[in-house]
Design brief:
Elements lengths: L4 E4 L8 H8 L1 E7 L2 E7 L2 E6 L2 E8 L4 H8 L2 E6 L5 H9 L7 H5 L3 E3 L5 E3 L4 E12 L8 H7 L7 E13 L3
């Protein structure tokens, strides 16, 4: 990772996370070099919780990546520039159960010092250690119409709160 990225503190990120997550999207990746999967996401959040820098990702149980995030203690969130939109679109519309996303898209995996996976093409990577997880629940929605609109099949996301333990920004070329 060090040849492509500089390690920075989370507070040194100057990006707008509303744009990064919702408009630019991100890849959620979990596993190790022997077995991992990645998926595109446009829901999530970054901030401070319990006096720690955190990132929260949301994954439905039927997604192939769900199993990897469940089974591993860490996940990465990788953010890309506009040139990678086709890759993100592909990773969001194809399952790693059925296809080799890396082979099909040209993504180049990189291993962090902790053995987690990110990608050479990313411009920003957040490496997260899971510290809390739970399912969204219908009975906890204060605006029931949100649950009805987003979960007509009651396939609620599980959210994973991760402490940001590594923050990598792409080196200037």
């Amino acid at each position: 990772m060090e040849s492509f990225f500089d390690l920075i503190l989370p507070g040194e990120i100057h990006d707008n996370f509303f744009s990064l997550i919702h408009e630019d999207w991100m890849l959620i990746t979990a596993g190790n070099t022997g077995s991992y999967n990645t998926m595109t996401a446009s829901w999530g959040t970054v901030g401070i919780l319990w006096s720690k820098p955190i990132a929260i990702c949301f994954i439905r149980p039927h997604r192939y990546t769900f199993r990897f995030v469940e089974e591993h203690s860490y996940y990465t969130l990788s953010f890309f520039d506009y040139r990678s939109r086709e890759i993100l679109d592909f990773c969001g519309t194809h399952s790693g159960r059925d296809i080799d996303k890396v082979g099909q898209t040209g993504l180049r995996p990189l291993e962090t010092s902790l053995g987690n996976i990110s990608f050479e093409q990313a411009r920003l990577v957040l490496e997260c250690r899971k510290i809390y997880a739970d399912f969204l629940k219908a009975e906890n929605f204060l605006l029931p119409e949100i649950a009805l609109k987003n979960y007509p099949g009651n396939d609620f996301h599980k959210f994973f709160i991760g402490e940001i333990i590594g923050c990598y920004i792409r080196k200037k070329e």
